[in-house]
């Protein structure tokens, strides 16, 4: 008889050192995923753009199919061999039907089956004069759906990096019963120190849910300097675990009872004034 007690959720964020060598990136990801699993992790996350350098010029060159490309095959095998859920960071995806390129996260169950995909819906187009200009839309197209997946632990919402700046997907995920939002991401050394942790804590606190981010490690010889600092934040907005900028694995045992406890202590869910503003989770686009 199936037990109704959810399994303990041990999260691992792989802050991977990404290089220009796709095969090496896949091999490095695999060895870190298996290492995390050997330490008991059953929900493992890779960073945004883990198989390619992060830059609009690289996306067309590295893009591949998520039906049968080498990266999804490798990710499926990693999840299966690790016997863990795997949120497979993101890769540049080329859609054979429309010919467009997307920044896409693929998600696997412990049998290695793909159980979800998320194409980044908010493209990272910013211009901070003298600091950073980045226009993902030069080579990428946006996805057109929000993403939630079912796991043995409960439902999880998934976004990618810049998606975290928008409160709505996390709010919708929380109201639809997700216990966590997970964002593979790659902030930079300009916006990272300003907003990375703040956004993560805001999404967690507003929604009284877990939020995790997973960045590539920083490479000062690359054209894009990732912020690192992959982190896990609890439903009270508390940083549970984090790291610096180097390659690392961040582990956290998620105590899912904290959500109910915190929601009981500060019962925002019962106090909302939907007579004054809309419930965004009930507004269909
Ligand atoms: O929002 C930011 O400041 C950074 C976003 C980003 O790096 C991304 O979407 O990949």
TrEMBL record:
Keyword field contains Hydrolase: yes
Record keywords, A-Z: Hydrolase
GO MF terms, alphabetically ordered: omega-amidase activity
GO cellular component terms listed in the entry, alphabetical order: mitochondrion
One Pfam family this sequence matches: CN_hydrolase
UniProt keyword Hydrolase, yes or no: yes
InterPro entries the record matches: C-N_Hydrolase, C-N_Hydrolase_sf, Nit1/2_C-N_Hydrolase, UPF0012_CS
Domain of life, source organism: Eukaryota
Coiled coil (UniProt feature): none
Residue ranges of domain CN hydrolase in the record: 9-256
PROSITE patterns assigned to the protein according to its UniProt record, in alphabetical order: CN_HYDROLASE (PS50263), UPF0012 (PS01227)
Single Gene Ontology BP annotation: asparagine metabolic process
Assigned protein family: Belongs to the carbon-nitrogen hydrolase superfamily. NIT1/NIT2 family.
Protein name: CN hydrolase domain-containing protein
Species this protein is from: Dissophora globulifera
């Amino acid at each position: 008889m199936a037990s109704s007690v959810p399994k303990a959720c041990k999260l691992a964020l792989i802050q991977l050192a990404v290089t220009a060598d796709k095969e090496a990136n896949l091999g490095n990801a695999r060895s870190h995923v298996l290492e995390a699993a050997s330490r008991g992790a059953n929900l493992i996350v890779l960073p945004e753009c883990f198989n390619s350098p992060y830059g609009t010029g690289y996306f067309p060159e590295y893009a591949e199919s998520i039906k049968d490309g080498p990266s999804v095959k490798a990710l499926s095998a990693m999840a299966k061999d690790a016997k863990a859920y795997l949120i497979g960071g993101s890769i540049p995806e080329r859609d054979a039907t429309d010919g467009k390129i997307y920044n896409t996260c693929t998600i696997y169950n412990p049998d290695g089956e793909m159980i979800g995909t998320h194409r980044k819906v908010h493209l990272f187009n910013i211009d901070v004069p003298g600091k950073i200009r980045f226009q993902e839309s030069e080579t990428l197209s946006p996805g057109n759906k929000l993403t939630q997946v079912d796991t043995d632990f409960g439902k999880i919402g998934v976004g990618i990096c810049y998606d975290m700046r928008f409160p709505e997907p996390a709010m919708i995920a929380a109201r639809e019963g997700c216990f966590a939002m997970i964002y593979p991401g790659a902030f930079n050394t300009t916006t990272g120190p300003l907003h990375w942790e703040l956004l993560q804590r805001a999404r967690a606190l507003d929604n009284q849910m877990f939020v995790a981010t997973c960045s590539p490690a920083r490479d000062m010889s690359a054209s894009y300097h990732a912020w690192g600092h992959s982190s896990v934040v609890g439903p009270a907005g508390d940083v549970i675990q984090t790291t610096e900028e180097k390659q690392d694995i961040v582990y956290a045992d998620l105590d899912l009872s904290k959500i109910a406890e915190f929601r009981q202590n500060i019962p925002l869910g019962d106090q909302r004034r939907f007579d004054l503003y809309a419930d965004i989770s009930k507004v269909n686009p």
